[in-house]
Specification:
The chain is mainly alpha-helical and 170 residues long. 50% of the residues lie in helices and 8% in strands. The chain has seven helices and three strands.
Length: 170
Protein backbone atom coordinates (compact mmCIF):
# COMPACT_ATOMS: atom_id res chain seq x y z
CA UNK A 1 0.00 0.00 0.00
CA UNK A 2 1.11 3.52 -0.66
CA UNK A 3 2.42 5.62 2.25
CA UNK A 4 0.15 7.87 4.24
CA UNK A 5 0.87 10.87 6.46
CA UNK A 6 -0.17 10.92 10.09
CA UNK A 7 -1.05 14.32 11.54
CA UNK A 8 -1.69 14.88 15.23
CA UNK A 9 -3.36 18.17 16.17
CA UNK A 10 -3.05 19.72 19.61
CA UNK A 11 -5.91 22.09 18.81
CA UNK A 12 -9.30 20.51 18.06
CA UNK A 13 -10.58 23.51 16.11
CA UNK A 14 -7.47 23.43 13.94
CA UNK A 15 -8.15 19.77 13.13
CA UNK A 16 -11.77 20.55 12.27
CA UNK A 17 -10.69 23.49 10.13
CA UNK A 18 -8.21 21.31 8.27
CA UNK A 19 -10.78 18.54 7.76
CA UNK A 20 -13.66 20.92 6.97
CA UNK A 21 -15.81 18.58 9.10
CA UNK A 22 -17.76 19.48 12.21
CA UNK A 23 -17.79 17.45 15.37
CA UNK A 24 -14.89 15.08 14.58
CA UNK A 25 -11.86 14.07 16.63
CA UNK A 26 -10.15 12.25 13.78
CA UNK A 27 -10.52 11.65 10.05
CA UNK A 28 -9.03 10.06 6.98
CA UNK A 29 -8.64 11.94 3.72
CA UNK A 30 -8.03 9.86 0.61
CA UNK A 31 -7.44 13.05 -1.36
CA UNK A 32 -4.69 14.28 0.99
CA UNK A 33 -3.53 10.73 1.88
CA UNK A 34 -3.60 11.64 5.55
CA UNK A 35 -4.84 10.24 8.84
CA UNK A 36 -5.40 13.05 11.32
CA UNK A 37 -6.27 12.99 15.00
CA UNK A 38 -6.86 15.37 17.85
CA UNK A 39 -4.35 14.72 20.62
CA UNK A 40 -7.01 14.59 23.32
CA UNK A 41 -6.01 13.30 26.72
CA UNK A 42 -2.31 13.08 25.83
CA UNK A 43 -1.27 13.10 29.48
CA UNK A 44 -3.72 10.31 30.30
CA UNK A 45 -2.50 8.24 27.34
CA UNK A 46 1.12 8.68 28.41
CA UNK A 47 0.10 7.70 31.96
CA UNK A 48 -1.37 4.52 30.40
CA UNK A 49 -4.93 5.22 31.49
CA UNK A 50 -6.74 2.23 29.98
CA UNK A 51 -9.83 4.18 28.87
CA UNK A 52 -7.85 6.98 27.26
CA UNK A 53 -5.60 4.42 25.53
CA UNK A 54 -8.61 2.44 24.31
CA UNK A 55 -10.32 5.56 22.94
CA UNK A 56 -7.16 6.63 21.10
CA UNK A 57 -6.46 3.14 19.72
CA UNK A 58 -10.08 2.84 18.62
CA UNK A 59 -9.86 6.15 16.78
CA UNK A 60 -6.58 5.20 15.06
CA UNK A 61 -7.90 1.77 14.02
CA UNK A 62 -11.19 3.29 12.85
CA UNK A 63 -9.51 5.87 10.62
CA UNK A 64 -6.85 3.43 9.39
CA UNK A 65 -9.65 1.08 8.33
CA UNK A 66 -10.93 3.87 6.06
CA UNK A 67 -7.47 4.04 4.47
CA UNK A 68 -7.31 0.26 3.93
CA UNK A 69 -10.88 0.21 2.62
CA UNK A 70 -10.08 2.96 0.10
CA UNK A 71 -7.10 0.91 -1.10
CA UNK A 72 -8.98 -2.40 -1.37
CA UNK A 73 -12.39 -1.37 -2.72
CA UNK A 74 -12.48 -0.84 -6.46
CA UNK A 75 -14.90 2.06 -6.10
CA UNK A 76 -15.56 3.08 -2.48
CA UNK A 77 -18.30 5.47 -3.63
CA UNK A 78 -20.42 2.42 -4.52
CA UNK A 79 -20.66 1.42 -0.85
CA UNK A 80 -23.25 2.90 1.50
CA UNK A 81 -21.86 4.91 4.40
CA UNK A 82 -23.32 2.52 6.99
CA UNK A 83 -21.16 -0.27 5.53
CA UNK A 84 -17.99 1.84 5.41
CA UNK A 85 -18.45 3.25 8.91
CA UNK A 86 -19.67 -0.11 10.23
CA UNK A 87 -16.46 -1.75 9.04
CA UNK A 88 -14.36 0.98 10.67
CA UNK A 89 -16.28 0.72 13.96
CA UNK A 90 -16.12 -3.07 13.92
CA UNK A 91 -12.35 -3.12 13.39
CA UNK A 92 -11.71 -0.33 15.88
CA UNK A 93 -13.87 -1.63 18.72
CA UNK A 94 -13.14 -4.19 21.36
CA UNK A 95 -16.41 -6.17 21.72
CA UNK A 96 -15.92 -6.28 25.50
CA UNK A 97 -16.01 -2.47 25.59
CA UNK A 98 -19.09 -1.96 23.40
CA UNK A 99 -22.40 -1.53 25.15
CA UNK A 100 -25.88 -1.62 23.70
CA UNK A 101 -27.63 1.57 24.80
CA UNK A 102 -30.97 2.64 23.50
CA UNK A 103 -30.69 4.70 20.37
CA UNK A 104 -33.15 5.65 17.68
CA UNK A 105 -32.57 3.27 14.80
CA UNK A 106 -32.52 4.61 11.27
CA UNK A 107 -33.30 2.68 8.10
CA UNK A 108 -30.05 1.73 6.41
CA UNK A 109 -31.52 3.28 3.26
CA UNK A 110 -31.12 6.60 5.13
CA UNK A 111 -27.43 5.94 5.81
CA UNK A 112 -26.02 5.56 2.31
CA UNK A 113 -24.58 8.89 1.28
CA UNK A 114 -22.16 11.18 3.07
CA UNK A 115 -24.91 13.80 3.29
CA UNK A 116 -27.34 11.31 4.86
CA UNK A 117 -24.64 10.22 7.30
CA UNK A 118 -23.89 13.78 8.38
CA UNK A 119 -27.60 14.42 8.88
CA UNK A 120 -27.96 11.24 10.97
CA UNK A 121 -25.07 12.34 13.21
CA UNK A 122 -27.13 15.41 14.18
CA UNK A 123 -29.91 13.20 15.62
CA UNK A 124 -29.36 13.40 19.38
CA UNK A 125 -31.27 10.15 19.94
CA UNK A 126 -29.43 8.28 17.19
CA UNK A 127 -25.96 6.86 16.82
CA UNK A 128 -25.26 5.80 13.23
CA UNK A 129 -21.75 4.63 14.16
CA UNK A 130 -23.01 2.29 16.86
CA UNK A 131 -25.93 1.15 14.71
CA UNK A 132 -23.52 0.27 11.91
CA UNK A 133 -21.21 -1.49 14.36
CA UNK A 134 -24.11 -3.67 15.53
CA UNK A 135 -25.06 -4.43 11.93
CA UNK A 136 -21.52 -5.75 11.40
CA UNK A 137 -21.59 -7.64 14.68
CA UNK A 138 -24.94 -9.24 13.79
CA UNK A 139 -23.77 -10.20 10.31
CA UNK A 140 -20.51 -11.73 11.51
CA UNK A 141 -22.07 -13.59 14.44
CA UNK A 142 -24.93 -14.89 12.32
CA UNK A 143 -23.05 -15.68 9.10
CA UNK A 144 -19.33 -15.55 9.98
CA UNK A 145 -16.76 -12.95 8.99
CA UNK A 146 -16.66 -14.27 5.42
CA UNK A 147 -20.07 -12.61 4.88
CA UNK A 148 -18.34 -9.20 4.87
CA UNK A 149 -16.19 -10.24 1.91
CA UNK A 150 -19.26 -11.66 0.16
CA UNK A 151 -21.18 -8.41 0.66
CA UNK A 152 -18.20 -6.41 -0.51
CA UNK A 153 -17.92 -8.56 -3.62
CA UNK A 154 -21.63 -8.00 -4.30
CA UNK A 155 -21.16 -4.23 -4.20
CA UNK A 156 -18.23 -4.52 -6.58
CA UNK A 157 -20.30 -6.62 -9.00
CA UNK A 158 -23.60 -4.81 -8.75
CA UNK A 159 -22.48 -1.33 -7.82
CA UNK A 160 -24.78 -1.39 -4.80
CA UNK A 161 -26.54 -3.97 -2.69
CA UNK A 162 -29.77 -3.12 -0.92
CA UNK A 163 -30.26 -4.55 2.53
CA UNK A 164 -33.80 -3.73 3.53
CA UNK A 165 -33.65 -4.64 7.19
CA UNK A 166 -31.54 -6.30 9.83
CA UNK A 167 -32.71 -7.59 13.17
CA UNK A 168 -31.14 -5.88 16.14
CA UNK A 169 -28.97 -8.23 18.18
CA UNK A 170 -30.42 -9.18 21.56
Amino acid sequence: MEPIDLLVFEDLEELRGFSELNDVDGFYSDFHKVLAFHNAKKEMILAEDKYALYAFQKMVLHEYTHYVFARKAKNPADYPMWFIEGAAEYVGSDPKEVYFPYFEKLAFEQLKSTEQWEEARKNLMGDPYLQSYYAFEFLTLEYGEEVIKKLSNQWMKLGILKIVSLKSPG
